[in-house]
């Protein structure tokens, strides 16, 4: 659906995309990155609305630098910003957008009714959009992206500003765009956890560079870990710390759940499973230390944990961007790149209610 080759976009003061090479296949793909990672810039280049500084990109086999018009005929776009005129109804607006896409009047009206019904706005379709809630406005923006029956839609932060229930509804709708209509989707988000159940494939960018591109299943399978909980003893008053030290010196990667502070989570260790012998190593270490083993169980990570480290989910002086943990589903923080972005993902995950619960 989309292929970029060394795609670079330099603004006078910032490199928004830095030699990005990625292939996106049919299905639902999440494009994830902290605010300022370059997601919107990439979408504008893919639509042929901005010219890249270097590199090339093709959408549905069409060259973005020469065939922008043909791309926009076949691709729907839901922008991030509020772009709806307040004084017209959803029906008037979506019919207008359908006409702009080249549909004849009757087809435009029929498609508008179908699309608004699909996004759950049928009852309110004749009301002026100025009185709509954020969730309703997001649905209109989605409807206008779908109305001309595109092969692919590019959705820029469609869950922005929505409460948790609204976000879930929007993510379900997005999934159905593909399952019900066979339209491929590229959806951006700065919240990693959102995309886990919605997307077949996830592309992560940071500072305009590709951090990772793989199927959602690969993300979570790669990250399989053992959750281990032990008792303290008189000889080992902090059994968890003792076990952590023993496993680390045995060469294992040991972390504590991201949602530290959750009840009981401080006593759980997550041990990366790198090979078949890890459970035996853990068992032996527990026995050697004379600890009681409360539980040892295999679990999969959430996608977001792949990018979280043990750093606290608050800003540090080196990122220069204030508290990354302040990211939420509705607020936008300033751009952050590199390790700071990873902390932001971790912070975002905590906001999303990612529990780190291993039970
Ligand atoms: N027209 C522009 N002129 C100068 N700099 C820009 C312009 N557009 C974007 N940038 C910068 O390029 C970087 C990437 O911005 P972009 O909007 O693509 O990020 P994003 O991942 O979509 O984040 P957000 O979700 O916050 O929009 C940012 O540092 C941004 O400030």
From TrEMBL:
Species the sequence originates in: Streptomyces armeniacus
Family matches, as PANTHER family: ABC TRANSPORTER, ATP-BINDING PROTEIN
Keywords (A to Z) from UniProt: ATP-binding, Nucleotide-binding, Transport
Domain ABC transporter: 2-232
Skewed-composition ranges (Low complexity): 340-352
Molecular function terms from GO: ATP binding; ATP hydrolysis activity
InterPro entries: AAA+_ATPase, ABC_transporter-like_ATP-bd, P-loop_NTPase
Family the entry assigns: Belongs to the ABC transporter superfamily.
Record's protein name: ABC transporter ATP-binding protein
Region (Disordered): 307-359
């Amino acid at each position: 659906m989309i292929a970029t080759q060394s795609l670079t976009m330099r603004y006078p003061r910032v490199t928004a995309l830095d030699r990005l090479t990625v292939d996106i296949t049919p299905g639902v793909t999440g494009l994830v990155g902290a605010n300022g990672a370059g997601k919107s810039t990439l979408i504008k280049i893919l639509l042929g609305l901005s010219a890249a500084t270097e590199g090339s990109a093709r959408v549905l086999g069409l060259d973005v630098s020469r065939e922008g018009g043909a791309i926009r005929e076949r691709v729907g776009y839901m922008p991030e910003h509020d772009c709806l005129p307040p004084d017209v109804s959803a029906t008037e607006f979506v019919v207008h957008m359908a006409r702009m896409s080249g549909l004849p009047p009757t087809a435009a009206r029929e498609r508008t009714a179908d699309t608004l019904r699909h996004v759950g706005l049928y009852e309110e379709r004749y009301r002026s959009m100025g009185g709509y809630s954020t969730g309703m406005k997001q649905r209109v923006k989605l409807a206008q992206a779908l109305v001309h029956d595109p092969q692919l839609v590019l959705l820029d932060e469609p869950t922005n500003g929505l409460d948790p229930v609204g976000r879930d509804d929007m993510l379900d709708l997005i999934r159905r765009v593909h399952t019900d209509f066979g339209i491929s989707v590229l959806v951006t988000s700065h919240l990693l956890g959102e995309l886990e159940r919605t997307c077949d494939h996830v592309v992560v960018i940071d500072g305009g560079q590709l951090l990772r591109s793989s199927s959602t299943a690969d993300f979570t399978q790669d990250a399989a870990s053992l959750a281990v909980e032990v008792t303290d003893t008189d000889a080992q008053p902090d059994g968890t710390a003792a076990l952590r030290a023993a496993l680390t010196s045995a060469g294992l990667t040991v972390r504590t759940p991201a949602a530290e502070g959750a009840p009981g989570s401080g006593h759980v260790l997550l041990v990366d499973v790198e090979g078949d012998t890890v459970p035996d190593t853990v068992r032996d270490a527990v026995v050697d230390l004379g600890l009681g083993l409360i539980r040892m169980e295999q679990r999969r990570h959430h996608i977001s944990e792949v990018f979280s480290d043990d750093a606290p989910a608050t800003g540090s002086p080196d990122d220069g961007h204030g508290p990354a943990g302040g990211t939420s589903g509705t607020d936008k923080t300033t751009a952050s790149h590199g390790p700071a972005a990873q902390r932001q993902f971790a912070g975002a995950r905590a906001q999303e209610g990612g529990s780190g619960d291993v039970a």
